[in-house]
């Protein structure tokens, strides 16, 4: 599945072979080694940062309209590679071709088109004569070279979410994709060059977090570290960024609740729970992982979810009939399986799934668990697999309290036909997104980001410009007096 014989680094508009170690890439759905990839060495990271720094002056001084034109051309170029990108995304992650084709690739193109428009609407908020004989205005300015680090679950979309707001605002970037999934980020950067985006604006270095990731975060010329990944690594990024006092943007783990109130449409909630917990084989930071269901609906809800999960087709991701492909690796599949096993041994019931089918790849069946304790590992910790835990509640307040009872706060859903209750849930659930009678839909126009241990900062939407720009106050005096009145406070006019 090697993307190119010219290497797995993309620096200053060209591929190169990294000077770091090499590693075998295993297709997770087949268990077969499909390529050997080179990792970046320290010199490659240095060169990538230098290329981004060199490109910054010209790129940041372009008019928003000019940057927008480049992004529109980029979207068109990427769309012409949709088939190649979808096939590579499935080969490197094991996700179904349906997901790659209908979600990952179009979502990425839409994101580029959104930021092509948003670039032209980036503006300062204030203009006024706040200090008497002077006018204040706000300039929003690009920060510099952004060092970004992305996870493996949606490699292409995560590259877009990190790169687009940064470059639309005039920054340049060095992105390190996950070492498990570098292929589509490389094609992404190559397509940017083909669309005319100047060399050095987007650079990709690949390799492990410990070596390449840490070198990038610590680099003194990197003005900001933007990261999507686990909460544990996010904390480490923050520590390292403190060494040079740089800005951080952290999109971290999740443990999204789905709260089904007593008046909910139980059939719709069951469908939402199955789609929400098995999307991308559950390897989605906003996936539904904890279903809190009013006790009057609990039996009906769990029976229907188990029935729907049992009917899901798990297997070859390239087969159009497959609902769910493989997980990212055998090691990750085993981690998911062992969490389910520990829950079972602590007395929980496995109503659906709970097993890996007899296939050579990293497959695991959609799984429904009941009877777990609220403070148990399976309810509190991120599993990042197709596992939903259902627990009953009695009062509306209890449902909301349980939803808030984990360290995470990325996303949540509430299911009810009662508008008062829906609004109360939206206000009281501590998460960056609350869906009502839905779970999962994301749109480029709306922000994505966490509360609590799920991090801070927003991806997508114009809110992401808050992350990738500096706000500058410019004050222009129109007082023609040599000695201004306020200066009397410091020294009297003589
Ligand atoms: P991870 O934290 O293990 O790795 C993410 C990235 O960080 C990878 O590129 C990895 O190489 C790099 N990395 C690892 N250690 C590093 C270090 N010491 N210094 C610098 N970089 C380092 O996460 P993952 O397993 O790739 O992805 C799954 C996690 O990502 C889950 O926790 C999931 O919830 C989270 N995620 C969050 C969002 C969001 O928007 N909040 C989106 C997708 C995934």
TrEMBL record:
Location of the active site: 251
Keywords, comma-separated and alphabetical: Oxidoreductase
Gene3D superfamilies: Aldehyde Dehydrogenase, Chain A, domain 1 (3.40.605.10), Aldehyde Dehydrogenase, Chain A, domain 2 (3.40.309.10)
Xref: InterPro entries: Ald_DH/histidinol_DH, Ald_DH_C, Ald_DH_CS_GLU, Ald_DH_N, Aldehyde_DH_dom
MF annotations from Gene Ontology: betaine-aldehyde dehydrogenase (NAD+) activity
Enzyme Commission number: 1.2.1.8
Domain spans labelled Aldehyde dehydrogenase: 21-474
Pfam families: Aldedh
Protein family (similarity comment): Belongs to the aldehyde dehydrogenase family.
NCBIfam families (alphabetical): PRK13473.1
Name assigned to this protein: Betaine-aldehyde dehydrogenase
Organism: Paeniglutamicibacter psychrophenolicus
